[in-house]
Amino acid sequence: MCGCELHANRSKGGFMQFGYEGKTFIMFDKDTLTWVAPVPQAQISKRKLDAIPGYNQRKKAYLEETCIEWLEKYLSYGKETLLRAEPPEATLERGKTEVEDGMEMHICRLDGFYPREIDAFWTRDGEVWEEETFHKSVAPNADGTYHYWLSIWIDPKERSRYRCHVEHDGLPEPLDLALKEPTNSKSNLGIIISCVVAALVLVGVIAGILVFFKRRQGGYKATPTSDKGSNSSDQGSNQAA
């Protein structure tokens, strides 16, 4: 097995090793240009490989030059996919509350991020807090991104002291999400009832105005009809006379 590494500062790394029955049998040290035998059975192979003229130099050249060239070529082919960085969508949810001790659960959900590596943890007063915390393994989504969540049990009286801290390559800067205070359900219910009552009153007022104008219009139409009938009666009387 062999491989190479190219770091952000352009430094290079590489390894080459062989195994036997699930254990490392012999490995190459490119800095000293020698083979290392971690087990006695590999001593013979070590001496043979080290004795081949120019063999170790060629292996070092492969790890630091040829392998790096292929690595950069593969990265250029899949650059849009391999080097993309999509930030996580972070949300905080409040879970259940234990009746016995009054402790409440809060969940920090992170979804749609890439690459897979993410650093997320709970803090209390700015310090990392591991007590009563739980973490789920990072899992893939159908679109190639990943999701992750972590939870914590806290005393509701200390809610303002906790934060969900998130670091990821897709974020311009780390996130610190504060826990949300619960909404006052009684207050919200009062607001809703007030709005409903106000709406009903408004509908009643509008309906009353419409009925009032409709009746007035009906009264105006009845008067000309009565006058016309009176005139017709007068004309009939005159003709009879």
TrEMBL record:
<keyword id="KW-0472">Membrane</keyword>
<dbReference type="InterPro" id="IPR050208">
    <property type="entry name" value="MHC_class-I_related"/>
</dbReference>
<dbReference type="Pfam" id="PF07654">
    <property type="entry name" value="C1-set"/>
</dbReference>
<feature type="transmembrane region" description="Helical">
    <location>
        <begin position="189"/>
        <end position="213"/>
    </location>
</feature>
<comment type="similarity">
    <text>Belongs to the MHC class I family.</text>
</comment>
<dbReference type="GO" id="GO:0009897">
    <property type="term" value="C:external side of plasma membrane"/>
</dbReference>
<feature type="region of interest" description="Disordered">
    <location>
        <begin position="220"/>
        <end position="241"/>
    </location>
</feature>
<dbReference type="InterPro" id="IPR037055">
    <property type="entry name" value="MHC_I-like_Ag-recog_sf"/>
</dbReference>
<keyword id="KW-0325">Glycoprotein</keyword>
<dbReference type="InterPro" id="IPR011161">
    <property type="entry name" value="MHC_I-like_Ag-recog"/>
</dbReference>
<dbReference type="InterPro" id="IPR013783">
    <property type="entry name" value="Ig-like_fold"/>
</dbReference>
<dbReference type="GO" id="GO:0002474">
    <property type="term" value="P:antigen processing and presentation of peptide antigen via MHC class I"/>
</dbReference>
<keyword id="KW-0391">Immunity</keyword>
<dbReference type="InterPro" id="IPR011162">
    <property type="entry name" value="MHC_I/II-like_Ag-recog"/>
</dbReference>
<feature type="domain" description="Ig-like">
    <location>
        <begin position="88"/>
        <end position="178"/>
    </location>
</feature>
<dbReference type="InterPro" id="IPR003597">
    <property type="entry name" value="Ig_C1-set"/>
</dbReference>
<dbReference type="GO" id="GO:0006955">
    <property type="term" value="P:immune response"/>
</dbReference>
<protein>
    <submittedName>
        <fullName>BOLA class I histocompatibility antigen, alpha chain BL3-6-like</fullName>
    </submittedName>
</protein>
<dbReference type="InterPro" id="IPR003006">
    <property type="entry name" value="Ig/MHC_CS"/>
</dbReference>
<feature type="compositionally biased region" description="Polar residues">
    <location>
        <begin position="223"/>
        <end position="241"/>
    </location>
</feature>
<dbReference type="GO" id="GO:0005615">
    <property type="term" value="C:extracellular space"/>
</dbReference>
<dbReference type="InterPro" id="IPR036179">
    <property type="entry name" value="Ig-like_dom_sf"/>
</dbReference>
<keyword id="KW-0490">MHC I</keyword>
<dbReference type="InterPro" id="IPR001039">
    <property type="entry name" value="MHC_I_a_a1/a2"/>
</dbReference>
<dbReference type="GO" id="GO:0042612">
    <property type="term" value="C:MHC class I protein complex"/>
</dbReference>
<dbReference type="InterPro" id="IPR007110">
    <property type="entry name" value="Ig-like_dom"/>
</dbReference>
<keyword id="KW-0732">Signal</keyword>
<keyword id="KW-1133">Transmembrane helix</keyword>
<keyword id="KW-0812">Transmembrane</keyword>
<dbReference type="Pfam" id="PF00129">
    <property type="entry name" value="MHC_I"/>
</dbReference>
<keyword id="KW-1015">Disulfide bond</keyword>
